[in-house]
Glutathione S-transferase, C-terminal domain protein (Lyngbya aestuarii BL J), 322 residues
Amino acid sequence: MPLGMLVDGKWTTEWTEQDNQGKFNRMPTQFRNWIKKDGSSAFTVEQNRYHLYVSLACPWAHRTLMMRNLKGLKDVISVSIVDPEMGENGWNFSEEPGCIPDIVNSCNYLRELYLKANPQYTGRVTVPVLWDKPNQHMINNESREIIRMLDVEFEAHSKSGLNLYPNELQEQIEQTIDAIYQPINNGVYRSGFAASQTAYEEAVTELFKHLDHWEQVLESQRYLCGNKLTEADVCLFTTLFRFDPVYHGHFKCNLRRIVDYPNLWNYVKDIYQTPGVKETCNLDHIKRHYYKSHTQINPTRVVPIGPIINFDEPHDREKFSQ
Ligand SMILES: N[C@@H](CCC(=O)N[C@@H](CS)C(=O)NCC(=O)O)C(=O)O
């Protein structure tokens, strides 16, 4: 794999995330600090103190940008958007359309930010990153935790007042996020990055078994945890939005498309058309990133022009009451 990572603060491309059976194993995320509204952490909730580094291509980063919009936190948390094409030097900042350079730390490459946080850092250099501007501190680089912080801890700053982690659904939300992570969110990567037939077939079979399950669930309710939009939907949406344009072809997740599942397809359109979501969706960045950056699975770097797909088409999900 030509992707790079940092080892003791030095950049290397000599590594792999596949085990000896060809299975893709994701490395754990390392920056796990919490911003707290109750003062129990050094990282307090403040307007304009934190900065979010994202890629519009990445489903994990997309979760955080989507949550920032859904909550109405654009004036509270600033953003940088990396260039969609990730080469041997990892993510970089540019002035390409849809990108926002690093106005906070003036980095050219995202790895410079990780080295600012820890000059001896060993690990992958990933988006999203939540950064403490005055203290030059990397707060957190795990999307599931970042969305929880934006949702719960920044509640008082939220312009929309939307709560995607309501008390009565918290247990179900956690269980659902857990349930979709390995087979679906990570499942598309386990399929696409599998380096053996067995590892690939195992991952794809499990992936579609779980998509079939959620198709059933969405027959009788609007969202994953009932008739309220929650964090679990944010987590699933960013994977499903990329599914037909990228995972179906590039990652060989091709037993079915999302448009072949009536409920999942309407569900994706419903969430896409929720105020604030559409602006976070950039198919150009998404397609260019995957097809041009993973040269081990697409050596020609040619980006397909299809599929023709319209996320603005009407959906039927309003039939469920709130
Ligand atoms: N566990 C992380 C995963 C983030 C992640 O894997 N991001 C990818 C982009 S989709 C990345 O930055 N990859 C760069 C690399 O691995 O070098 C999260 O959910 O936040």
